[in-house]
Amino acid sequence: MMKTEEYCFVCGKSNPKGLKVLFNHGNGKALAEVILEDEYQGYSGIIHGGIISALIDEACVYAANSLGFNTVTAELKIRFKNPLAPQEKILVEAQAKHIKSKLIEAKAWIKKTNGSLIAEAETKLIIKEKTNDSKIL
User: Fold this and answer.
1) How far is CA 37 from the centre of its chain?
2) Which domains does the chain have, with CATH numbers?
3) In this structure, is the dihedral angle defined by the CA atoms of residues 123, 56, 94 and 79, taken in order, positive or negative?
């Protein structure tokens, strides 16, 4: 995976303002359980859509990179379905497929533990380089 200096907003352990999300990833899939704190609200009692978007983007990159490539997001289409309150446990999931020599497509979604859908997305990721880091989930 490309170097982040452990300062990535979503997954970096050294970013004091980051989310510090740990993704399990492999075979073109990524999965994380997350509980978001109050400081990530937009409107009172609702997690900001930008935070939800960042989680989805990160999940797609982890899924794509688990296929053995370093990628960057080229396109991200998100559909928000339901609001998310702080302190609710959510599941962030993504699946990626290598489509062309320099393109990976991924789908992602965020659900509450009761199964209700918070958001879903489709992404296109550009392959920057091949790695030997493909992982098995």
Assistant:
1) 17
2) 24-130 (3.10.129.10)
3) negative
pLDDT tens track of the chain, all 137 residues? Answer: 566 668 899 999 999 999 999 999 999 999 999 999 999 999 999 999 999 999 999 999 999 999 999 999 999 999 999 999 999 999 999 999 999 989 999 999 999 999 999 999 999 999 998 886 655 55
Token reading at 47: 């997690």
| Buried-state track 95-104, b at ≥16 Cβ within 10 A, e below 16 | bbebeeeeeb
State the alpha helices, DSSP H only, in the chain: 49-65
Q: Rounded to two decimals, what is the model's pTM? A: 0.92
Report the C-alpha gap between 55 and 33 in whole angstroms: 11
| Block residue for tokens 């993504």 | 94
Distance, in Å, from the CA atom of 55 to the CA atom of 11, rounded to the nearest integer, reads 9
